[in-house]
Amino acid sequence: PCLGHLSVPATYICTHRWHSITLCMWQVCRTSMLGSVLKMLAANVHSVLPIKLFEVGNIVLLDPSRPLGARYEWRLVAVYCDSASGMNAIQALLDRVMGSLVWLRGGRGR
C-alpha cells in the first residue's frame, strides 16, 4: 500500500511569565507524532521487511482553559510494514499495550 504525506501545522507557544516580547522564547511543539514515524519509515524503505517502528512521546494541544493556552498529552504511534501485513500483528501490539496499562485495571499489572 502507498503511504501519503500528512502535513500538520506547528503550534507556537510562548510563556506568559515574560512580559517583554524580546525576552519571549518561542518553541515549536509537535501536535502529532505521525510525521516523525513516517519520516523514519521513509528513511528505512529499503530495509528488510518487516519494519516495526513505534514512538511514545508528548504532543501539545491547544486548550484555552489552561494558563498557557495548551496542554501536553502522551501519545503512542506504531507502524508495521510487511509485504503481507495482517491485522494479527497490529492486534497483538494493541493487546500488549492495553494489557500494560496498569491504571485501567485498578492498579494491578499482568
TrEMBL record:
Residues making up the signal peptide according to the UniProt record: none
Coiled coil segments of this chain: none
One of the GO biological process terms: phenylalanyl-tRNA aminoacylation
One GO cellular component term noted in the UniProt record for this chain: phenylalanine-tRNA ligase complex
GO molecular function: phenylalanine-tRNA ligase activity
Occurrences of domain Phenylalanyl tRNA synthetase beta chain core (ranges): 27-96
InterPro entries referenced in this protein's UniProt entry, alphabetically: aa-tRNA-synth_II/BPL/LPL, Phe-tRNA-ligase_IIc_bsu, PheRS_beta_core
Pfam families listed in its UniProt record: tRNA_synthFbeta
Record's protein name: Phenylalanyl tRNA synthetase beta chain core domain-containing protein
Organism, scientific name: Volvox reticuliferus
The organism's taxonomic lineage, starting at the top: Eukaryota, Viridiplantae, Chlorophyta, core chlorophytes, Chlorophyceae
